[in-house]
Amino acid sequence: MGADETALRALRPALDIAAEAQPANSVRSLSRGWRIAGTWLPVAFLLVIEALVRLRVLPDNLVPAPSSIAEALWQLGADPLLRHIAASTARVAAGFGCGAALAVAVGAAMGLSRRLDALLDPSFQALRAIPSLAWVPVLLLWMGIDEAPKITLVAIGAFFPVHLSVVSGIRNVDRKLLELGAIYRLAPSRLFLRILLPAALPQIFTGLRTALAVSWMFVVAAELIAATRGLGYLLSDGRETGRPDIVFGAIILLGLLGKLTDSAMRALESRVLAWRDTAIEGERA
Fold first, then answer.
1. Per-residue pLDDT tens for 121-147?
2. Of 168, 155, 160, nearest to 108 (Cα)?
3. pLDDT of 50
4. Rounded distance, CA 145 to CA 97, Å?
5. How far apart are the first and last CA of the chain?
């Protein structure tokens, strides 16, 4: 009996680990199933719309069938369509990059300095409330009709979500972490890089993902006026020529590109923040 009890005690840690692993594996498989269902949900929605249009429940002049939308995009040709997609993607990439980089620098300075935050925050909050279309005539007046006003408009849209997340992320860092940095006598630069920035990164990535979605919205506003290429121009051209299939095609492409870029940002977030040990992250694994 003594040997059996000793063997049982030796096996108990392994049995406990196996018992904990089974619920985790079931949670992961369940989460994976929901992700697969989420991928097929838009496809099912499009199939339902196709059936309703074919059965004349929905008027095809207002809601075109998905097959008609695909046919219209096919008739545009691969080269023109790719040029529209490339133009919008390049504007979003340039505007988002400039706006996010500036927002991180300004947000970090405001998060570290109460005086600077008190000085700049009222103006930033007022500027943040200005609609995207209100900037268009001003930027056209200042910069002309080339690429500069379009990229600037996207940068304005990307700036404020990232700025808010950086300031909030730094301000919400646990005071105990700052006290730990003071105990180790870290210089301000090392305190920012070793403690403040890593602790604020989860909230900063949330702001980056929000800013990326806003960038796609602002690029449409920029391309609705004074543009000859881009998905926003395609959207406007379909409206002016009475082509709802082109309008809905541009909307679907914008949604797909927004999803792809958000997925890329989410993958980067998971890689950069791999050190996190949270229940939600465990379910995503």
1. 999 999 988 888 888 888 888 888 888
2. 168
3. 85
4. 21
5. 42
Task: Quote the Cα angle for 161-199-259, to 5°.
Answer: 40
* Contact (Cβ atoms closer than 8 angstroms) between residue 237 and residue 195: no
Distance CA 219, CA 228 (A): 13
Q: Which two tokens stand for residue 114?
A: 């109460």
Domain ranges of the chain: 1-58, 62-284
Give, for 151, the enclosing helix (H) or strand (E): helix 147-171
- Match 């409330």 to its residue by tokens: 129
Classified as helix, coil or strand, 127 is helix
pTM above 0.85, yes or no: no
Looking at the chain, the whole-number percentage of residues with pLDDT higher than 90 is 32
Q: Residue 183 — φ and ψ, nearest 5°?
A: -60, -40
Q: Say how far apart CA 242 and CA 13 lie, in whole Å.
A: 70
Q: What is the distance between the alpha carbons of residues 82 and 90, in angstroms, rounded to a whole number?
A: 12
In words, the CATH class of domain 62-284 is mainly alpha
Closest CA to 269 of 192, 108, 261: 261
Alpha carbons 122 and 165: distance in angstroms, whole number:
16
Q: What is the C-alpha separation between 79 and 73, in angstroms, rounded?
A: 11
Q: What is the pLDDT of residues 53-75, one digit of tens each?
A: 888 888 877 888 888 888 888 98
Q: Give me Rg for the CA atoms of the chain.
A: 25
* Amino acid letter, residue 180: L
